[in-house]
Amino acid sequence: MFMKIIQSEWLKFRKSNIWLLLFVSPLLAALVGFLTDVQKMEGIEWYYLLSGMLFVHGLLFLPLLTGIFSAFVTRYEHQGGGWKQLLALPVSRLQVYLAKGTVVMIFLAITQFFFIVAWYGVGMAKGIIDPFPLVSACKIALVGWLACLPLAALQLWISTAWASFAAPLAINVIFTMPNILVANSEKYAPFYPWVQPFLTMLSAGNGKVDEFFYIPIETLLYVVLGSFLVFLCGGLLYFQRKAV
């Protein structure tokens, strides 16, 4: 039944333009990558290029997309009594909530894949001679995706609670804007969900570039896991009691 719920979610998106958003962040990051001068960074060209692209992808658009996807998966149910129709089916609220969260994370995984492709493509186009760090790229994509879990859980909670499609997005934008300032704080940055994807992806590069932002990846992942469980449990408890 869980997979059937996910399949029904995919059917909703087939007729929408949400798919176009999967390419927005990688393409804009690629544009910044083309404008990044890596010629004088011998030995660390790939990571220097990555740092420039991450300021667009990880610091800005990845958190924004997390909020957009989370709001989108609840949009149909908020319209015309969709929650009543969905929950009238022989499915549990737990299955419904987790299925929607799974769809959000699938979208983010696809976005991460395209970002790595963009990183590789830009590097090849700029003539970087060193081999592409494929293992590091996979690690960077994975930890960045994992770091989206707390924010996705929080945004799904908010999007489930508010019928307005715009309100959760506005909140997400408001809290994404201070990212560059929060990222400079060694004390507060690891605990700020909107900046965690950027920090984890940058730190997964072993601090080879932008050491000022470097925070041990183990510390970040512990914080990410803890905050994810808090937001997930909070959202589930709310959804279980939500009146439809």
TrEMBL record:
The chain crosses the membrane at residues 46-73, 94-120, 132-154, 161-182, 220-239. PANTHER family: INTEGRAL MEMBRANE PROTEIN-RELATED, MEMBRANE PROTEIN. This is MrsE. The keyword Cytoplasm does not apply. Keywords: Membrane, Transmembrane, Transmembrane helix. The keyword Coiled coil does not apply. It comes from Lederbergia lenta (Bacillus lentus). Pfam families: ABC2_membrane_4. Signal peptide: none annotated.
